Amino acid sequence: MTDPDQSFSDLKLDRKECPKCGATWINGKHVWRGTGASSDSSELDLAGLVCNPYGNNQCINPKKGVDGGQTWEYRRGYVDAAIESRKNEIENADKMFRTQFPDEDL
Ligand SMILES: [Zn+2]
């Protein structure tokens, strides 16, 4: 019989959770809750979205206080721009249709 503790020794899972924002680090890598996704900039994005505006000195995010990640302003700006371009597309299509078929009763 092999010692079960020994066979799992390579799979040690180091899980840290920020006591303030609940962000999770697994083996030193930040992973988003819910999605479990992670990227090279996720600590920076977390700082911009959560730790900088809402965190305090309990925060364990090493990137806390660092600018350059995503912010809510950035996300809002992105969504606004997407909605705006879609609206323009529809208006343009509408104008084009009316120019092409001026006799159509719309
Ligand atoms: Zn934090």
Could you walk me through the main structural features you see in this protein, from its secondary elements to its overall organization?
By secondary structure, the chain is mainly alpha-helical. The chain has helices at 4-7, 42-54, 72-100; strands spanning 15-17, 24-26, 29-31. It has two domains: 12-69, no CATH class; 71-106. Helices cover 43% and strands 8% of the residues. The mean pLDDT is 83.
In short, what is this structure?
The protein is mainly α. The protein has two domains: 12-69, no CATH class; 71-106. It contains three helices and three strands; from the N terminus they run αβββαα.
What's the number of helices? 3
Tally of extended strands?
Answer: 3
Question: Strand content of the residues, in percent?
Answer: 5-15%
Oligomer: single chain
Mean pLDDT: 83
Q: Could you say which small molecules are bound to this protein?
A: zinc ion
